Structure formats: structure tokens, C-alpha cells
Amino acid sequence: MRILHVLDHGLPLQSGYTFRTRAILTAQMAQGWDVAAVTGMRQGSAADAAETIDGIAFHRTGPGPLPGLPGEIAALAARVGAVADRFRPDVIHAHSPVIGALASLHAARRRGLPLVYEIRAFWEDAAVGNGTGREGSLRYRATRALETWAARRADHVAVICEGLRGDLIARGIDPARVLVSPNGVDLGLFGAPLPRDAGLAADLSLGDEVVGFIGSFYDYEGLDDLIAAMPALVAARPAAQLLLVGGGPMEAALRAQAAASPVADRIRFVGRVPHAEVERYYSLVDVLAYPRKRMRLTDLVTPLKPLEAMAQRKLVAASDVGGHRELIEDGRTGTLFAADDPAAAARALAALLADRSRWDERRARAEAFVREQRNWSSNIRRYQPVYQRLALAAEGNRTWSRIPSLQH
């Protein structure tokens, strides 16, 4: 089986998007499949080029001759086509945003190749979550319509969670054409959790009741609610501290909010840290907190970070948005609290910190859930029957054109 993946961006850039991509492609190669990837202009490549990172062959897309989004799609379509002509894939697997699907549709149809379109989040909702769009705006509606158009024309659609699948079905996409390939963890990347780094804890003046967040500081992550919860948490648990590792658009505002807090001395920011150092900071944290705000993005999409925390045998506490409810069983594998409610977050965290007798049991259940149900080495098998069916159909009829062309 030969699969050509089409990506917005990939390694060596680091994000939840690239970590999921690396896990999928690495697991597919371990299965014995031939895999290659094309990244779009947002990778930042100065020219069409190729490089191998972590054993994965990446083909970069340089700047196109046309400006704006049409130029971006045209450049990516040309690059996908050129790589497909050399690599000769059985299937083209495009990953969101929809730019990749549009470029890949053109390349796939011209070559009689089947297309799988994988949606990790709807582009219009991601823009709202990142603060670059407004729900219900003309741009939002146009992007939503384009996403639906692409999903209708792909030969199969993959999504990362049931929330996205349900939304697509509500838009009229045939349920039989929508595969759920949930977020997972490459357990091969995680060894035994590091023991507490006492030297780093001393450098940061951290005690033994640490709530932490390690990731990107976007508004939808709800870190302002976590900071707002700290006075009540410290009142209930005087030793409690908050460790924030990472950065992003909200960093300046969050630092200002923390500085004005009556418990400012209990909140630590350390900024971004090298990926190789992240496990040292995980070792300091007792409870990883994910206080995401309630909106379409967080209700529909499951995040990766809580699964990684569970894989490292860390306690997890999260808001009760839909994406978290797909991952966390309240009271068994983690703790859920009301979204957008700092008081509820404080109560949940205080109760969790007070009940150390159940920590080991909960950590073990959470790790077992990831190992048994969210392990990439088994998750990638979900793609196999879809790939095989589509490839056989295309091989049997190279003029195969069940899906309308781009001109329709």
C-alpha cells in the first residue's frame, strides 16, 4: 500500500498537528506501507524541495506564482501532482485545513486516484477559536460551505472524533463515508515517567501540590479561568501552585492577569521550553489542568494533550466540553468540572489534591485507557479497509469518476 499524505505543515515544526501526523505516518511505515508527505506553503519553504525527518519523506511546496489563497491552492495542487507522478500512490490522503483537500481533489481526479480527506477541526471554527474569525460572519459561512463541498467530493472522510462525525452527518454527508480515527498516542515515544526533578523544582520554588498546563496559550484553552480559580484553590489548599509552560497569543494578557492576582506568588510562568526538556516539567506537575472554554471548536474536537498526560501517568482535570467528555470518564480516568466557571475548577482541583489515596488507581486506569483504546499502533488499522476498498476500485477502473469533477 502506497499512501501520499498532503499536509498543511509537518516536521520539524512542532504542534499537536505535526505530532498526530508523525504518529500516523510512523505507524503506517511500521505496518510495512510506503508513505510520503507533501507540505503546503505554510511550512515556509523557500522552494520545492525534499527532505527526510524521523524517517519520513517530506516534499515541500515553495511559493506559487499567484497571490493569496488561490495561489496557495494552485501551488500545492501542482506539487501534489508532481510528487504523485513520481511516487505513484494508491491513495492520496489529505489532511485539514480544506486547502489541502481542494489541492488534492484536482491532483487526484486528473490521475484517477482516490482521495481521503481527514478533518481534524473545521477551519471556520478553528478561526473563531484562534481569535481570527467570528462565528456566523460571511467569511465563516463561506468557509463552512467550502468545507462541506470538499467533504461531499472526497471519496471518504476521516475525522478525529464523534463530535465532528455527527456534525458532518447533520450536513448531509453519508455516515457510511465517515471514518472516526481518534487522536491517539505513540507509546513508543514515552518511556517510564521521569522522577520528580528536584533541582528544577527548587529553581522554580515549587512545592508538592502543583497544578500545571503545558501547551499553547490560546483563548479557547481557558487559562484565564484557571488563573481566576487560583485564589479559591489556594484558600482550600494553601500549598497549591500553578505552573504554566508554553506561550502563544494570550501570554501577555495571562501574565498581566496573574500579576494582579492576590495569589500572584503561587503562579509560575516559564515560557516555551525545548521539546527535549518538556518531560522535566511534566515531572513537577501533580495535576494537568485543561480548562477549555465552551464553544463549537471545543465541543466538537478532542485534544491530544490530555491523552499524552494520561500516557505519562499524570492526573488530568478538565472542563466538561464535548471534546473532553469523549476522552475522560469523570471520577475514573480523570476529573471533569463545569466549563467557564473558575469556582467549579477550584472546587474540583481542591478535591483532587486532597484525595491522594486514589491517585495511583486513577493513573493506572487512565494509562490503560490510552494503551488499549488510543494507541496509534492499533488506531491506524482503521484506515486499512478504507484504503484497500478505494484502491481496488480505482485499479479496476482507471477512468473511475464517481465523484463530480472540479468543474461541476
From TrEMBL:
InterPro entries: Glyco_trans_4-like_N, Glycosyltransferase_grp1, PEP-CTERM/XrtA_GlycosylTrfase. Coiled coil: none annotated. Gene3D superfamilies: Glycogen Phosphorylase B. Residues 16-184 form the Glycosyltransferase subfamily 4-like N-terminal domain. It comes from the Bacteria. This is Glycosyltransferase, exosortase A system-associated. It comes from Sphingomonas corticis.
